[in-house]
């Protein structure tokens, strides 16, 4: 009986060890819902073309991913986090406090933020100022900031539809939300009377802006069901669902690939992922994933990811960034403060 128990214990220990080894072969990735489709494509390709298992990817939002990524080093923490905006200095400092002291930044391309509605409503032209007045918590009235009184688009501008203001958008943990606040609200309020020349980014919480979670496909579904509503999400989801939704032109520019890559479209941003280099020896798949993601096959002008909505970077920049990732160039606080 004792021999059986010892034997059973040994088998359990061996099985646990094998399971742990297999788990570390599998790359764990978290982060941005916008980067998720691109990261997933690379992950599936890695699983199909190499001896490594397909990485596990969780769509947690950029902020949520950074929080998990910066919790520390070890099996219970992610190896990579995706982000639809650059890492914040506060996040970098939190990483360092928790022992995550060797990070490489990988920029993969451009994306635009779409402000879209159901195709049944057709196209619409909006300005960043009009969008801001629809979603801001406070707006200027007679020279003073007051709680947002607008309930219909036509109340902002008589040329706009006489429709209730309903905007489905990302939550506060989302990089898309960060970029929207910076590129739409902050830019427009700096020029608007009543805000004192300072950018304002507080979003109303009276039911007209609805945080719809980190799943952009859910926002698409909401727009199909509610043709009065608008939604905020990445360009790749707009392109993938062109039969369901149409993007508004913003400040006279349509959300199209060429306009995003040139910077003409005013609500465009860079996309990133961040690598925890301290996991490189324990998770061999990490380098293989990096090499595949940064390859021309994926992020080049003829790359697979362009076909699902990624806007490629210029050729010279892609080559430089590819080298930085291959060499695991260490990100510094000074880099983020530039």
Can you characterise this structure?
This protein is of the alpha/beta class and 338 residues long. It is 40% helix and 18% strand. It contains 14 helices and 13 strands. It has helices at 2-25, 36-49, 62-69, 89-97, 128-135, 153-156, 175-191, 216-225, 235-240, 257-262, 285-293, 296-299, 315-326, 333-336, and strands at 28-31, 56-57, 80-83, 103-118, 125-126, 138-141, 144-147, 167-169, 209-211, 230-234, 245-247, 249-250, 268-276. Strands 1, 2, 3, 4, 8, 9, 10, 11 and 13 form a 9-stranded mixed beta sheet that branches. Strands 5-12 form a two-stranded parallel sheet. The chain has a two-stranded antiparallel ribbon with strand order 6-7. A hairpin with a 2-residue loop joins strand 6 (138-141) and strand 7 (144-147). It is globular and about 60 Å long. The protein starts with a helix and ends with a helix. The model is unreliable at 1-23 (pLDDT under 50).
What are the key terms here?
338 residues, globular, two-stranded parallel sheet, nine-stranded mixed β-sheet, alpha/beta, disordered N terminus, 40% helix, 13 strands
């Amino acid at each position: 009986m004792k021999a059986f128990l010892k034997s059973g214990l040994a088998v359990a220990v061996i099985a646990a060890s094998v399971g742990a080894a297999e788990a570390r072969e599998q790359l764990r990735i978290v982060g941005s819902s916008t980067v998720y489709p691109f990261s997933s494509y690379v992950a599936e390709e890695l699983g199909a073309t190499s001896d490594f298992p397909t990485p596990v990817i969780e769509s947690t939002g950029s902020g949520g991913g950074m929080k998990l990524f910066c919790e520390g080093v070890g099996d219970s923490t992610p190896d990579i986090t995706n982000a639809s905006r650059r890492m914040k200095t506060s996040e970098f400092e939190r990483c360092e406090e928790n022992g995550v002291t060797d990070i490489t930044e990988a920029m993969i391309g451009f994306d635009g933020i779409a402000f879209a509605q159901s195709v049944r409503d057709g196209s619409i032209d909006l300005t960043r100022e009009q969008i801001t007045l629809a979603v801001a918590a406070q707006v200027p009235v007679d020279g003073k900031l007051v709680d947002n009184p607008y309930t219909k688009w036509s109340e902002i501008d008589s040329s706009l539809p006489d429709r209730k203001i309903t905007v489905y958008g990302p939550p506060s943990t989302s990089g898309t939300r960060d970029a929207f606040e910076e590129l739409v609200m902050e830019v427009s309020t700096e020029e608007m009377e009543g805000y004192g020349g300072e950018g304002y980014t507080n979003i109303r919480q009276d039911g007209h802006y609805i945080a719809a979670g980190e799943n952009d496909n859910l926002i698409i579904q909401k727009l199909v069901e509610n043709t009065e509503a608008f939604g905020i999400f990445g360009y790749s989801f707009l392109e993938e669902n062109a039969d369901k939704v149409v993007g508004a032109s913003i400040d006279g520019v349509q959300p199209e690939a060429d306009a995003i890559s040139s910077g003409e479209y005013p609500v465009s941003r860079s996309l990133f992922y961040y690598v925890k280099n301290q996991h490189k020896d324990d998770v061999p798949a990490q380098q293989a994933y990096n090499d595949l993601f940064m390859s021309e096959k994926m992020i080049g002008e003829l790359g697979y990811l362009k076909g699902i909505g990624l806007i490629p970077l210029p050729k010279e920049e892609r080559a430089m960034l590819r080298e930085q990732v291959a060499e695991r160039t260490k990100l510094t606080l000074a880099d983020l403060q530039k």
